Amino acid sequence: MLQIAKIVASIGDAHTAVALPLALTLPFQCYWFEDGMHITAVAPGFEELLHSRIQSINGIPIDTVIENITTVLSHENTAMLKSQLPRYLVSAEVLLGLGMINRTDEIKVGLEKCGNAFEAVLPALRDSEYIAAADGKLPLYRQHQDEYYWKTLLPEKNLLYFNYNKCKDGEGRSVSDFCEELKTDPLPADSVDIASFIASLTKSGLKSSSIRIAVATISSIHKLNQFTDPTQHTNVKIELRRMHRTLGRYSNQAFGITAPILEKMLGATDYSLRGVRDRALLLLAYDSMCRRSELVALKISNINLNEADNTVEMKIRLRKSKTDQELQGRWIFPSKRATEAINLWIGQAKLVDGFLFRGISNAIEITDELNCSQINRIYKRLAKNAKLPQEIIGHISGHSMRVGAAQDLLKSGASMPIIMNRGRWSKTDTVMRYLEGASIN
């Protein structure tokens, strides 16, 4: 079944999926927070596990476990993957099918709590046992998961909360009936309601960038449905200015992986198949300043090799990028060291066609592609193996290589137009945010 799930997941369509088994699960539930996978609920008798961070399963690092499970989950973006993966990470049947455990009655789980690392040997429970044993009041989004859609009124917050778990008619109540019960007509939205929505988000703890994204989404939905855009009304613009005066416009910048840090991370790679891939990925990401989506989209057919004077020169065609939606394309010219690393990866992985960078399962099976979300985890894993400070690891993202390369260019004396051209940026303010952390001696 899991082999079929891998094939289906490779399509990249969230609505085309194989239903994975969930009858046997570990005695806890978890959630994928920014700093890792944490246990958020436990079955009776396992209370000591609550709030622990999962480090490994059966001796396999959690990043590798996540990478393996990702191959069988149909998803189209990182948010969808993060919502699905915790559910299947506890499935003993999925772990067994992927070769990460060899028995379901004794599963070793490496954990960390309050700075103390420990290992728990856990049995898998039947789904019914675990659901009945769920402890504590669940948050709203985790309640009534067996219902297609439901609602509740929160008088103390003057809020109507509704949730839908399946996009289909439920037994005895259709989607149309449910919408009628809500008695809402969201389109077109009133500018006064949107202004009130922005004011409530301002007090919610969200960053100004997240609120701007929400407003932009409302704007796009109205335009797509050929309604007048209410976000352009004076009421909304005034409330946005008020929000910015309260929260500011600053957003946290990804930590830049500059050349010295890159060398430390390269030193943390080995000559295993995964290590060879990681080395090629790091060097090409730094040389090319590619975005995550651009790196995972590169194909073997995009590579052009020119052998002359006992040297091999490589250039790679970047077919499409965020700032090149019309497929004009750009050539990337990797350094000699990156060229050697890429050729070594292609040779050891025996790649002939398809995507250049691939995922690698715990059984050292090469998948058909590498997901964007895996880039971030690879960088963090290598930074951790290189023993970089935790405060640095926590701020590393899929953009870190791009940020660091831009900062190094600035230090070398490159002008703004050169940096923008190398990184394929179209807006100077974006580049300026990337260069803020560069220290020029």
Can you tell me about this structure?
With 441 residues, this protein is of the alpha+beta class. The chain has three domains: 135 residues, Pdz3 Domain (Roll), CATH 2.30.42; 99 residues, DNA polymerase, domain 1; 177 residues, Intergrase catalytic core (hpI Integrase, Chain A, Orthogonal Bundle), CATH 1.10.443. 41% of the residues lie in helices and 15% in strands. A four-stranded antiparallel beta sheet has the order 5-4-6-7. The protein has a three-stranded antiparallel beta sheet with strand order 11-12-13, with no helix packed on it. Helix 7 runs parallel beside helix 9. The protein starts with a helix and ends in a 6-residue tail after the last helix.
SSE blueprint:
Elements: H1 2-9, E1 24-25, E2 28-33, E3 36-42, E4 53-57, E5 60-61, H2 62-70, H3 78-89, H4 92-97, E6 107-113, E7 116-122, E8 125-126, H5 127-132, E9 149-154, E10 159-164, H6 175-182, H7 191-202, H8 208-224, H9 234-247, H10 259-267, H11 273-288, H12 292-297, E11 303-308, E12 311-318, E13 330-332, H13 336-349, H14 372-385, H15 390-393, H16 400-411, H17 416-423, H18 428-435
Antiparallel strand pairs: 1-8, 2-3, 4-5, 4-6, 6-7, 9-10, 11-12, 12-13
